[in-house]
Design brief:
Shape: globular
Largest sheet: none
Number of helices: 6
Number of domains: 1
Helix content: 55-70%
Oligomer: single chain
Radius of gyration: 15 Å
Strand content: under 5%
Order of helices and strands: HHHHHH
Length: 126
């Protein structure tokens, strides 16, 4: 499973959970994203390891980065915390933010262009 496919599935699941107001699924997806951001145990990597596919190493990655954290990990932590803050604590005034994030994640999975990851890499993450 690629990160692109995972973003497509995650965005779809979040949109379905938001549309049908399935709070248990929403909090599970938020917790999953935060857990992946904190531990760096990513679902696509674990699925590939179970399937026997070795991860691809980016040989062009810059060794001189300002922030010694992978951009994917920082992105997952940022998205998870943003979902948590806007859905759990500020649900009424900021109801549109989880919807916007879910559509952006779904679009990132469909097009393989993620503005959040691009911003994290420009900020100096690996």
């Amino acid at each position: 499973m690629t990160d692109r496919m995972y973003r497509l599935v995650y965005g779809s699941a979040m949109l379905i959970a938001l549309y049908f107001n399935i709070n248990v699924l929403i909090y599970f997806l938020i917790g999953l994203m935060i857990l992946e951001g904190v531990t760096n145990w990513r679902v696509p990597l674990m699925i590939n390891k179970l399937r026997g596919i070795s991860p691809q190493v980016d040989v062009n990655a810059s060794s001189k980065c300002r922030i010694p954290v992978e951009a994917e990990r920082a992105w997952r932590l940022m998205i998870g915390l943003t979902f948590l803050l806007t859905y759990a604590f500020f649900a009424e005034p900021l109801w549109f933010v989880p919807w916007f994030l879910a559509f952006v994640i779904f679009g990132a999975g469909a097009s393989d262009v993620c503005p959040g990851l691009i911003a994290m890499k420009k900020a100096g993450c690996k």
